[in-house]
Specification:
- The chain is of the alpha+beta class.
- It has two domains: about 160 residues, Jelly Rolls; about 70 residues, Orthogonal Bundle (Arc Repressor Mutant, subunit A).
- Helices cover about 45% and strands about 20% of the residues.
- The protein is built from eleven helices and twelve strands.
- The chain has a five-stranded antiparallel beta sheet with strand order 1-2-9-4-7. It has a four-stranded antiparallel beta sheet with strand order 3-8-5-6, with helices on one face.
- A hairpin with a 2-residue loop joins strand 11 and strand 12.
- Helix 9 packs across helix 10.
- The longest helix is centred in the middle third of the chain and has 27 residues.
- The chain is globular, with a radius of gyration of 19 Å.
Length: about 260
């Protein structure tokens, strides 16, 4: 059976297959989602028709992850496109010498892993929940069906991939050219990218330890940098998080 024929199956047939898969997933502690819930947790769902929504939602389950629990590990054959429903996720890796490198942090509304799904390869990174997190998991069959059949879904993927390339190029530049305070400022600003993280709020529930983990510095250094940014009026530190006062100032900090 050719790949094109395999993924261009009818919506009704896929619904039946996805429903059976979801029943099995429910027995393992994951919960299938409703169409309304999908629209709340996935900005890309607004580009789908009703029939495509039905296909998508029956191929998605949710699972809870505890702090420091791996969602996937480098080298895993992880067969899901993944969305952050609630919580905070760190994406990175550990070198053979034991040095941890953070690529990015993911907040509620973020979806990731489409590159590995499209290339059908093992994961090149670890994804770890930094706090209690709820994660949406779309199985490979559903993801491939949407790629083959949904124009709206493909437009979203193109925009997301383009934005992610720019995001990682920026992170590479920050790491090589900016001082610690500027790197931390840009790291925080990156969590408010309207395409990658479409939450829209200017408040971020995050601890200083979590900010340090995402920006690649100790909690103590992160604390010093945050206080500097607060004095300069670009953010306000609060109990259990922070509020952005000048997002453009954070994005341009250090120029």
């Amino acid at each position: 059976m050719s790949p094109t024929f395999r993924y261009a199956i009818s919506g009704s047939a896929l619904l039946l297959l996805a429903g059976k898969a979801a029943e099995g997933s429910n027995r393992t502690g994951k919960a299938m989602i409703s169409a309304d819930h999908l629209r709340r947790i996935a900005i890309w769902a607004s580009a789908l028709g009703d029939s495509e929504i039905e296909v998508a939602r029956t191929g998605i389950t949710e699972k809870a992850f505890a702090p420091n629990e791996f969602i996937c590990m480098r080298g895993d054959r992880f067969e899901y496109w993944t969305g952050v429903v609630a919580g905070l996720v760190r994406v990175g890796t550990v070198s053979s010498a034991g040095k941890a490198v953070t690529f990015t942090g993911l907040t509620a509304g973020a979806w990731f892993g489409e590159g590995s799904m499209l290339k059908d390869e093992t994961r090149r990174y670890d994804a770890v929940a930094l706090r209690d997190s709820r994660i949406a998991l779309m199985d490979r069959t559903t993801f491939n069906w949407l790629v083959e059949n949904s124009v709206g879904f493909n437009r979203f993927l193109v925009a997301q991939l383009n934005e992610r390339v720019g995001h990682f190029m920026g992170l590479l530049e920050y790491g090589r050219m900016l001082d610690p305070t500027a790197r931390l400022a840009r790291c925080i600003a990156s969590l408010f990218n309207p395409i990658l993280y479409p939450d829209g709020t200017r408040q971020l529930e995050i601890t200083q330890e979590e900010i340090g983990a995402l920006s690649g510095m100790s909690r103590q250094n992160a604390n010093r940098c945050l206080k500097t940014l607060e004095k300069q009026g670009v953010l306000r530190l609060e109990y259990g998080g922070l509020t952005i006062l000048d997002l453009e100032g954070l994005r341009r900090y250090g120029e």
